[in-house]
Design a protein that fits this description.
It contains ten helices and 17 strands. It folds into three domains: about 240 residues, f41 fragment of flagellin, N-terminal domain (Up-down Bundle); about 80 residues, no CATH class; about 110 residues, no CATH class. The strands form five sheets. The chain has a five-stranded antiparallel beta sheet. The longest helix is centred in the N-terminal third of the chain and has 52 residues. By secondary structure, it is α+β, with helices and mostly antiparallel strands. The N terminus is likely disordered. It is flat and about 135 Å long.
Amino acid sequence: MSLSALGIDPANLASQYTQIERQGKDQALNTKYNAFNAQIEAFTHLKSNLSDFLDDLKNSQAADSSLLSNSATSSNESAMNLTASGDAVSGEYDVFVEQLAQSHQVALSFDPNKALATDGELTIDLAGESFTLDFSALGADPSLKDVANAINSHADNSGVKATVVRSGNDTFLMMTSEESGAANTISLSFTPGADANGAEVTAAIAGQQELSSGQDAIVKLGANSNITVTATSNTLKDVIDGVTITLSQAQQPGDAPVHVSVAQDQQSSKENIQNFVEKFNTLISSIEDSDALKRDSMAGGLARSLKNDFQGLIEGQTLYSVGIEFDRNGNVTIDNERLEAAMSNDPEQLAAMLTGESGLMAKLEERVEPYTKSYGLINDKKGTLQASLDLVVEKQQRHEYSMEMVYNRYLSQFTQMQQTIAQLESSMGQF
């Protein structure tokens, strides 16, 4: 019997007939599988985009938000640097830097050729809070480095940093208050133990050198004013509302006060608002331009709701009145003339409309947040889609099993046909 002679290949014929029979259902199931899979992926990306957008909304509403920017300049940048937040008020000020804040720092001199005490207690007080270092806990033959490490790692240390410094033949144990200010002063005392070398610790404390005194920053306001401001730090945040002053150099008597100018930075503000608008438009486009999302009722409803949040009155005015509007394609755009007028005429009103408690950002945040939570609306949606996808996969598996049975049936039938024809040819060959 020769299969080529008979022209019948049972396996090939069974495969072809099975393929014809399965083609329609295969296509239908694959279409559903691809659609559900694409939707799950699209909602995963949408949640990520919404989370990023939500972070931007929250940052824009923060107290130090720079959505509406102000600039602060100093006539003497050697003496101070300035940064202005969005709630700074335009104005002109004179500030004289009388004194910088600094940390208290002392140095204790030790003879490097003499052994340290192996007992006794060193008490360190900082601003009224003290802790005690027991030298007997340092181990045999302790070094100054051991003392410094024990001070730095002490559980009750409230802000003293110890280091070992060497200069020629001299070795110093240096202690510095981590925070500046007159109140943060270090004081030391030593209670000797049985070891006679404790006398060297007592002598080092008695002969300590004050490298810098703890002192507050002192500034005076106004060109001819005696209004004095003191601070423990060289970073002043409460002198001029919305302005952070970083002091870097004290001025000399007779120097002119530093002139501080706070003004609105319209260019940066417009760029910040334009950046927000672009992020919003990108978010909406990610929904409306997605084949997997644009026909979905939840995603489409979210896009419409987000756009609706731009409509109506906010703080008694429309966003259109301050230059924020929709174009014919449904994208948010900015009319620079109206926006600049709003910045100049009533920046506080504009800030309230955009970043206030009842402003646009707050409305959008309230709209977006339910979709971004771990157990939020998008995760629920993805769960529903995944269940549908699992059902399709289950149907595909059952269909595959069914088609395997069909293939085996065709294979058996064509094999039987081949055998029957072979028997006929054999019988005919005998005549």
